[in-house]
């Protein structure tokens, strides 16, 4: 758990891209330099493409602004949000690496209770490289961690675990609350360091926050579409939620794991709760329909790839959520466009197909 | 320290005594236990008299009580760790907290003594959230809340029926695991309480638990007795079985199960390697037990805890019975337990 301040041994530096959406600046990278410098960055610049975003010296990066997105995707660019950090998923699309780590530009290096700086990226890599255990809950949390194990009663046949598709990290300082909660508790800070990583059980949904997130792009990449948010859309701040629900349903279907917990980053910026409320407003009551939809979503056995799962989900979104609001019909269209764009840009890339159909 | 706004008189602390000299155990717990009424059940196999120090409010039950209440021709065997269930049966309180007699209070990561009774009661008196996972864990804890994306309609939560605590020092690992890592001790203090999601199965350890007796009392049951069951946790599965039944009941009735804090300090006792030589059966049985419970769905018409247990017993006998007599006996014990509970456990006056 304790990480050194000096540049650590790079782990998977040729297999992982760091995707950062930004509309302001990338000053935060200075603090991350010892941990991020060995890696390739994909910067997705939101907002005005004529603005120059300066990337600190010494980083290896590619930067895409709206003009680039339009040029690369052509008419398919319609599926990439504008004026919302949802645009980050363009970075997943163009990456050629096996793993993605994405982080917001107001997230900094946190310290553990001993005062040592946390190398969030390294913890994510550990999470992704060790198995998940979605079929039976281990009361001592991550059994593969040094100093812990599976508890009495944990069946041996389940101790190999399954591949980990997603590693969801948390935040100290400003917690990821919705607008109503922010309004009620404007001063609340998350100071509790929970020293655990755990697998979210199969069949259980969760709110996936995109601030501090890593995933196996080769496994689950096509499901990480962050939806239609921001400018011209009736909703915002539900991009990562949407991706998380789709991703979890698909991971459950494919037999892959989703972990949550460590690592922590330090979230510095409290966004304006009134602005947030306007963005989230529709989401707050739409999610009452969305949750039962995802909880009961069933993917047929012949959905043996993530793309097939995702297209199937888009059909169900159109059929069942289209009735809630016509936004969901647009979203279903965008989900299809996303997969088309994914397949076009990732033709030679590997995609994970299940040989004998999905896991139970 | 979490404050549970319930009366101490609503709580019984039940201790199954597998060792006769409880002096040091009780003294370690004195500051925490002395407020409460204790039910101490002596393992009927224990020959020596119990030694309990002064200054506690307690009742002791031993073999003679058990025989008188239960009768001799019972498929339920209250020996070893299962003796505590007799305490659950005769209690008349709403909440029960139970610890193994080789556990003492632990210290948290800041060095403060943990009051596990207070934490368990806080867990039981705040809602559980089994239908959607909160990434900041227990949203009812001080300094935490539901995160963005958590549906508002699910924020009232449900009643928490079971609180499963953890262990520092000697963790509840099975014999093969501990035997492979004989020096391994648990020093990781994870400052979280988590609701175990609905339909997610888990191994419930009986070492450090608390429950709402009023809601789910009959579902904590002494049923699965291994042929080689012994006086070490490595040699038993009774709590794991009971916990699986309880989780199915909770999921069916819409009640919650929490896991995490509080920690207790579990003293070193016994040898994993010695237990391993004796007992393998439990590990093998889990391979059948887990898929069985994972797929168990109770009919909608089953609406009480007692009826849930009867229905489960029926299914156990039907589906697991053919593979091992241990399951048939467990099913019989479950049915008998419900009868016993109705006769003895649900009265309003104590024994």
Automatic annotation (TrEMBL), chain A:
GO BP, one annotated term: cell wall organization
Subcellular location: Golgi apparatus
Superkingdom of origin: Eukaryota
Feature type site, description Required for activity: 152, 159
EC numbers on record: 5.4.99.30
Residues with attached carbohydrate: 152
Catalytic activity: UDP-beta-L-arabinofuranose = UDP-beta-L-arabinopyranose
GO molecular function, one term: UDP-arabinopyranose mutase activity
Function: Probable UDP-L-arabinose mutase involved in the biosynthesis of cell wall non-cellulosic polysaccharides.
Similarity section: Belongs to the RGP family.
Protein name as it appears in the record: UDP-arabinopyranose mutase
Annotated organism of origin: Dovyalis caffra
TrEMBL record, chain B:
One GO CC term on file: plasmodesma
Cellular localisation: Golgi apparatus
Family: Belongs to the RGP family.
Superkingdom of this protein's organism: Eukaryota
UniProt xrefs under InterPro entries: RGP_fam
UniProt keyword annotations, A-Z: Cell wall biogenesis/degradation, Golgi apparatus
Gene Ontology molecular functions: UDP-arabinopyranose mutase activity
Main location: Golgi
The protein, known as: UDP-arabinopyranose mutase 5
Biological processes annotated in GO: cell wall organization; UDP-L-arabinose metabolic process
Pfam families linked: RGP
